[in-house]
Amino acid sequence: MNVDRFSLPLSRPLATASGTIDERTGFVVRYDHRGETGVGEATPLPGWTESVADCESALDRASEAASTGGHTGALLALDAGEVPAARHGFATALLDADARADGVPLYRWFDSERRCERVPVNATVGDSPPAETAGAVERAAESGFECCKVKVGSRSVADDVTRLRAVRDRVGDGVTLRADANGAWSREEARRAFELFADLGVAYVEQPLPADDLTGHAALRGGPVGVALDESLVDRRVDAVLKTDAADVLILKPMVLGGPGNAHTLAMRARERGVEPVVTTTVDAVVARLAALHVAAAIPNVSPCGLATGDRLAADLAADPSRVVDGEMAVPQDTGLGVDSSEVRTDA
User: Fold this and answer.
1) Residue 342 has pLDDT above 90, yes or no
2) Do residues 276 and 222 both lie within one domain?
3) What is the residue range of 30's domain?
4) What's the DSSP call for residue 342?
5) pTM above 0.90?
6) Which residues are known to be catalytic?
7) pLDDT tens digits for range 138-192
8) Residues 279, 147: one domain?
9) Which pLDDT does position 202 carry in this prediction?
10) Is 343 flagged in the annotation as binding?
11) Which of 8, 250, 290, 316 has its CA 20 to 30 A from that of 163?
């Protein structure tokens, strides 16, 4: 097991609940398994996963465990609840090697019957005044996106309604609209927003209430606007969320869930409960983006996913074999992730 640290500058600052960041720091993990060298990525994100320092320590422990106990020992040393990014890095490298050894792209390692060349993706539009918001959605639609997620919650509900109405006036009903409140609303604000958003054809609101308010989220369900949970999955098991019927949609981030295998398992479990999975990244480098793309590709009839995040990086670990065309991302059909470990460089 080999671990190399990297830091990649962002093309523009990223605002998170833990502050604004201007670079993504993580680790490239390589692991030899079944005659192949698999590659993975562990890129912690403050507020979502462990710290960079804890990730590095966990990978060091896993490397020691792998030297005596092989991949089983390494996985046992990496708790998905405590160090999800570190586990993601090793688990991805292991799966990449397995899929290469079996001669299939990773998504077909999850489901050998699947054939998927493209995954629909959404564009993300930040908080801005009505005309600017409408213009951003219009540009996304003109470039081929049929689904846009608009950030809400920083303004009053009335102001966000005005913004979304401006979008509908500009682009009509041909674009699916989603909203992301990042847990900003009270129960009363959320109830009012859902009533008003219904007339604007908003498909769902992501994290309308604080992460720990599963009861409040469950009460919002049942109307024309769906409830999607994202931050709520950080500190609690998906099974607990499903048990409380708190969501119509689960936003699954493989980096937060401990690896692409965990994310795929949870996606299919959600489907069995009638809850739709949407796969997204945590603004990762190309290795983790590809892992998330393969998870999405392994889900039949998956909804547009939040995978078109490569442009948030000013530099990357390797050339990206996937491209977004007309609102869809091409799925590599080469074995494994679709990028050779020797092409992944940490000195970008």
Assistant:
1) yes
2) yes
3) 2-103
4) G
5) yes
6) 151, 253
7) 999 999 999 999 999 999 999 999 999 999 999 999 999 999 999 999 999 999 9
8) yes
9) 98
10) no
11) 250
